[in-house]
Amino acid sequence: MDALLIIFLTGLISLFLGMMKKPAYALGLNLLGLSVAFILFWNHASYVSILKSYAGSLVFNGPQIYLSLMAILFTGLVLIGGYAMQSKDKLHYADITSLMMFSLTGALCLIGFKDFFMFFIGLEILSIPVYVLVGSRKAEHLASEAALKYFFTGSFATAILLFGIALVFGATGSFNLNEIGFAVMSGLYTPALMIAGVLLIIASLLFKVGAVPFHFWNADVYEGSSKGVMAYMSTVVKIAGFIALYKLIKTTFGNLSDQWMYFMYAVIIASLFIGYLSGLKQTSLKRLMAFSGISNTGIALLSIMNGTQSGERSLVIFLLGYGASSLILLFISQVVSEEEDQISSLEGIGYKNPLVGFSLLVALLSLSGIPPFTGFFGKFLLIKDIIQLHPVLGIAAILSSVIGAYIYLRLILLIFSKRTPAEKISLDWKLALVLITSMVLLFAGWMLIL
């Protein structure tokens, strides 16, 4: 709880620093707040929170600590990597970074929630700033369109979620996850209300993570967002959404698996193939990453169908690899041009720029599931755990990964193509730090969690 308060207050203070039109001050303060929060989470077990009276609503332990650390680290990397472009707008830079800090507060609430009150509060604190961030490029009509589409569809999903929560409360008489889980295990609930409520909650959360058939907003919203905002959505927002979905479906509603299992079967298989197949003909990097994200969502959802207790750990490793790879792709594309979104703009970039070429190679090999990168271990563990209990899902995941590997390896050939001489890119130390940190996570991040 202390870390959440520090992050929120840091974002609030940096909001006022924006009046000084000194982007470096806002960046420095936000990074300081994130560093303190990171240290507090790292030493979570060794001190007593001053807000211990609220411990019943938020609990962080085991994989939730790793997920919180990941969310904080990725937010810091997004702030550092996006500084070069975002700081050009001195008037609004602090607003953008503060919105990310507020959204991170909601993400941490989603990671540690223990009842539906904190779950809903965290979800809205996470989502509302992101609606604004998507439309932050006010001069771009695509950004305005994306923000409006994201807001309306997100609001509709929230309404469905609230209806589902109300039905679950009506079925069990409680908002507490432990009490609801006990009622489900004991059969002390109203079946019709409970089943309808669970399906509505699952549907709304599947929208948040961009799974089929609730994926139609992904490509347009990603295309309209700036690359810094897209990097935040691809990392922190996905981390929070997946862990919330995992906690609710796998633990609280786990004993109702007969009611949602076949629905999730269809969602996972459709997500695995529709994403990559839609990405085959894309010429826009943002849209390619959006469709790629849909298939990676299908891979991540395998953790929910996992019959073992290691599903959450495997999910953490997978999200770490996916997030680090996304940061590399997006920020290198941003250096080439913030406005240029064509995949062809990356042609030949690997020859003239060794650090850029190597980092792109590592990111794409990790997304392809090639060892020894974190992306490989994340996919391998999720598929290994699922293939014994649900072989159809395991085979589907392997086949879709082959399609994904074809897309990513085709990008590698383009990046190291000799046909078009690329320009030499000047990397400042901030972006180099982001690339090196992301590569360390891709090479060795899995070792910290296994």
The total count of strands amounts to 0
Q: In terms of per-residue confidence, which ranges show pLDDT below 50 for 5 or more consecutive residues?
A: none
Question: Level of helix content?
Answer: over 70%
User: SS-based structural class?
Assistant: mainly alpha
Throw out a few tags for this protein:
0% strand, single chain, 450 residues, mainly alpha, globular, 19 helices
Structure description:
The chain has 450 residues and is an all-alpha fold. Helices cover 76% and strands 0% of the residues. The chain has helices at 2-17, 23-42, 63-86, 93-112, 116-134, 141-172, 177-186, 191-209, 218-224, 227-252, 257-279, 285-300, 302-305, 311-336, 349-352, 354-368, 374-389, 391-415, 429-449. Helix 3 (63-86) runs antiparallel to helix 19, helix 5 packs antiparallel against helix 6 (141-172) and helix 17 packs parallel to helix 19 (429-449). The chain is globular and about 65 Å long.
Brief description of this entry?
The protein has 450 residues and is mainly α. The protein has helices spanning 2-17, 23-42, 63-86, 93-112, 116-134, 141-172, 177-186, 191-209, 218-224, 227-252, 257-279, 285-300, 302-305, 311-336, 349-352, 354-368, 374-389, 391-415, 429-449.
Indicate the topology:
Layout: H1 2-17, H2 23-42, H3 63-86, H4 93-112, H5 116-134, H6 141-172, H7 177-186, H8 191-209, H9 218-224, H10 227-252, H11 257-279, H12 285-300, H13 302-305, H14 311-336, H15 349-352, H16 354-368, H17 374-389, H18 391-415, H19 429-449
